[in-house]
Amino acid sequence: MKWMMMVLAALLAMPAWAQDVPTELAQIQQRWAEIQYQTPEQEKEKAFEALATEAKAFVERYPGRAEPLIWQGIVLSTYAGAEGGLGALGLVKEARASLEAALDIDPEALDGSAYTSLGSLYYQVPGWPLGFGDDSKARSYLQKALAINPDGIDANYFFGDFLLDQDEPERARVYLEKVLSAPGRPGRELADDGRRREATQLLGQR
């Protein structure tokens, strides 16, 4: 009886965040979408900095799981975009390391999201000598993401954006239009709406 009481006390003493991967993942995804699509530009850097701390703790709580590493990479890369400048290069290198670690564990986790995010980094980050940008690697990663999740909103959006960057507007249009008709993701409504708006804006530029 005594040991049972000790176990119960320990469980009650556990912090509220000690939940499970899907629950914590959904919370980070929702917070990311709120910052990305609803937070004023001048407040995004601090908000992503705080979320990066949460994502790091998420990874530490679930070693050996690909999902936390993927979202650590996503948060760090968008934090880098909000920060800008040379200081962002250190963040994108951290993001790349996190995404590569996720690939080593499970390349198909979250519908190949590590490939999508790595691909987006490789075409948006400057090339040598400032950064590690590489259009060939970007294309390869983005195509691998589409092979896993051909109807995915993010996979199609980033490949379309990449093709625009490569001055292939007609091919880009095919993928960006798929974003608008792609099935929504349960619990990701805010992110889906934001991504569709971005796709619509890109389509309007061509």
Topology:
Blueprint: H1 2-13, H2 21-38, H3 41-61, H4 66-83, H5 87-105, H6 113-124, H7 135-148, H8 153-165, H9 169-181, H10 189-204
Helix pairs in contact: 2-3, 2-4, 3-4, 4-5, 4-6, 5-6, 6-7, 6-8, 7-8, 8-9, 8-10, 9-10
Signal peptide: 1-18
Protein name: Tetratricopeptide repeat protein
Keywords: Signal
What does this molecule look like?
- With 206 residues, the chain is mainly α.
- The protein has one domain (23-204): Serine Threonine Protein Phosphatase 5, Tetratricopeptide repeat, CATH 1.25.40.920.
- The N and C termini lie far apart (71 Å).
- Helices cover 76% and strands 0% of the residues.
- It has 10 helices and no strands.
Task: List the defining traits of the structure above.
206 residues; mainly alpha; Serine Threonine Protein Phosphatase 5, Tetratricopeptide repeat; 0% strand; Tetratricopeptide repeat protein; TPR-like_helical_dom_sf
For the largest beta-sheet, the strand count, sense and barrel status come to: none
Count of alpha/pi helices: 10
Number of strands: 0
Helix content: over 70%
Q: Class by helix and strand content?
A: mainly alpha
Can you say what the CATH homologous superfamily is?
Answer: TRAP transporter T-component
What is the CATH architecture annotation? Alpha Horseshoe
So what's the CATH class?
A: Mainly Alpha
Query: On the 0-100 scale, what is the average pLDDT?
Result: 91
* Rg over C-alpha atoms, rounded to the nearest angstrom: 18 Å
Overall domain count = 1
Per CATH, what is the topology?
Answer: Serine Threonine Protein Phosphatase 5, Tetratricopeptide repeat
Beta content comes to under 5%
Shape: globular
Distance N to C terminus: 71 Å
Low-confidence spans: pLDDT under 50, at least 5 residues?
1-18
Elements, N to C (H/E): HHHHHHHHHH
Keywords: Signal
Protein name: Tetratricopeptide repeat protein
